[in-house]
Amino acid sequence: MKIDIGNRRDEGTLAGKILLVPFFEDEKQINESYVDLFKNLQGIGFKGKKNEIRVTSIGNSWETICAIGLGKREKYNIDVLRTSLSSGFREIQRSSFTQVDIEMPGVDDMEKEAMEIAYIAEITLYEFSKYKSGNEKKNLVEKIKVLGEKSIEKSVENGQILGKATNYARDFANMPSSDGTPSFYESMARSLKNVKVSVIEKEKFKELGMGGLEGVSRAAKEPAKLVIMEYNNSTDRPFAMIGKGITFDSGGISIKPSSGMQDMKFDKCGASAVLGAMKALSEMEAKVNVIGLAPLTENLPGGNAYKPGDILTHYNGKTSEVITTDAEGRLVMADALSYAVDKFKPKAILDISTLTGACVTALGNNIAGLMGN
Fold it and tell me: Quick one: 2-167 is in which CATH superfamily?
């Protein structure tokens, strides 16, 4: 998908094109040229309420308009823009339009709005179709033009980089565990530009004293790995990001119920997020040093699997007694965290894990749990 900028709409053919315009829930709009259009939209029931969407042929200059509601102006924030844009893009995707011109609300900084528009376009129009059979494909938007000045060009580019990096992470997260293996993750990491990649293989875990990784990976069929990504573009001490990468979590000997177990391919989402972040940093040429670590393994039962009651010694000498083998995430993360502290002396650490379903029970699907010091 191509995202451009322009200061006016094309005057050529209207076939396949649509104009997306945001409106507030009052008649005083940011762009005065759309005041009359808003009045016409009100005539067919559009109020500009938050997340309200109306696709219509009202107006003379464009065949089709997608009006999105931003709600009351005094309650507007960037999250309102994100959700409303996403709803608008989904409505357009369900139709036959391949090109979209977008007016910015003009409330926040123009560069900030432009970056958000490009980012939301990328992540909303994402489709994971690698495994779908048949020839049917969704209508895909081929081109988006953000209506604005040349000064927002870099912001649009950065928004698209962030969106594509997010989708890169989603690609690995969505892969079935038989394909989304530690080795495949390594190949994705090695494809990143300006990122140095090194790998500690399973055979080295015991030698290095990584008892958590060694224990959890004992019964794994796919070779476990600790993938280390280094992005250096500063003279400062690095930040570290560490993402849990259990490519499939059966629970081990403390096996999970079969219902819903197919979703345990998503226990690698922490590692996926680190992969996407490293891609974004490198492509944006961020002036920072960042180390990304991903402890990657399956957690499976077997005759050689680690067991409840085992005591594992971690990289830093601390020990863990295993009560349930379905609490494997903290065991592999403990080794990765202590290794990062010892080898890289980071100024700060961000660790990202799908650590427990209790977080969803407590906070729901739209809020992440954050703990820190």
Answer: Leucine Aminopeptidase, subunit E, domain 1 (3.40.220.10)
